[in-house]
Design goal:
268 residues, nine-stranded mixed beta sheet, 11 helices, 41% helix, globular, binds S-adenosylmethionine
Length: 268
């Protein structure tokens, strides 16, 4: 499948089919970054939910030269299965009805353990994408090992404190050459956005690429600038859609970031 800006509609359909909670423009942003980075061999997703994001990343990484990535998913399972338990995530049931079959909804609400979630997501990913996923799920951050990751996708947390705790806990799990993706950097999770700004002030994260709702960070300014240069000098890059922002000395002299012009991608 084409994950570039030439296929917004096709990517949108795939996102809906898998039940990922992201706009297609953010898949295009990840495509841009992944095809301009060194080998990615493992990825941690904080908030694995239905596994839609995991399935999408598995396909996208394979298509950008990173096959057989080993995934770890964290999810306490309180939101999926929420209808059956009457717990706080019950509003997600509208989304379940949109994305899942009646059979899938029933089996999802019965999930109780991390191993069951792993199997459920693996079976669905293979059935819907034709690509097997190497996945291990755990119920919380505390259950993670000392493993360090090439990519972390941060996709849960409401309050500033909760999100900052996750960032402080998980940034050390990122390799020096890794990418930390914060989702819902918008009205979707406004206090996560605040937490990320504080983390930037604490020099835990350095911005690289501004997507639509996802922002991509590095752990060090040097690595951030390496990724920015790689994207901007890629001859396949369309500079009208991925634009180098003017330098900001806040992060170091002449420090640059890339802004995805998602409005122009929507018009295209
Ligand atoms: C927004 S959904 C993730 C969507 C998914 N990443 C995607 O791309 O489609 C957030 C998930 O995080 C889980 N979650 C929320 N807070 C959590 C926590 N503190 N620990 C573990 N899981 C959590 C919820 O159960 C929910 O399934």
């Amino acid at each position: 499948m084409d994950y570039s800006y030439n296929n917004v509609k096709g990517i949108y359909d795939q996102v809906l089919k898998l039940g990922m909670l992201s706009p297609p423009e953010d898949i295009i942003a990840a495509w841009m970054l992944f095809k301009n980075t060194d080998r990615i061999s493992n990825m941690l997703e904080l908030g694995s939910y239905l596994g839609g994001g995991l399935g999408m990343f598995n396909q996208l990484l394979d298509a950008t030269g990173h096959p057989n990535v080993k995934f770890t998913g964290v999810d306490h399972l309180d939101f999926i299965g929420a209808a059956a338990r009457g717990s706080k995530g019950a509003w997600y049931t509208d989304h379940f009805n949109r994305c899942l079959s009646a059979e899938e909804r029933a089996s999802l609400s019965a999930l109780n353990t991390a191993d069951e979630a792993t199997e459920w997501i693996q079976e669905r990913t293979l059935r819907l994408t034709g690509l097997p996923i190497d996945l291990t799920c755990v119920l919380n951050e505390q259950s993670l090992s000392e493993e360090q990751y090439d990519v972390i996708h941060h996709d849960y947390g409401d309050s500033v404190e909760e999100n900052l705790t996750t960032i402080r806990n998980c940034v050390p799990k990122l390799k020096d050459s890794g990418i930390y993706i914060v989702d819902d950097w918008c009205t979707g999770a406004p206090l996560r956005t605040v937490a990320t700004v504080i983390a930037v002030q604490e020099k835990l994260l350095y911005p690289v690429l501004w997507g639509k709702n996802k922002v991509f960070y590095a752990r060090t300014p040097e690595h951030a600038q390496r990724m920015v240069s790689a994207m901007l000098r890629n001859p396949e890059n369309n500079p009208k859609l991925f634009k180098g922002m003017p330098g900001s000395d806040y992060f170091g002299a002449g420090y640059r970031t890339v802004r995805m012009h998602w409005q122009a991608i929507q018009w295209a």
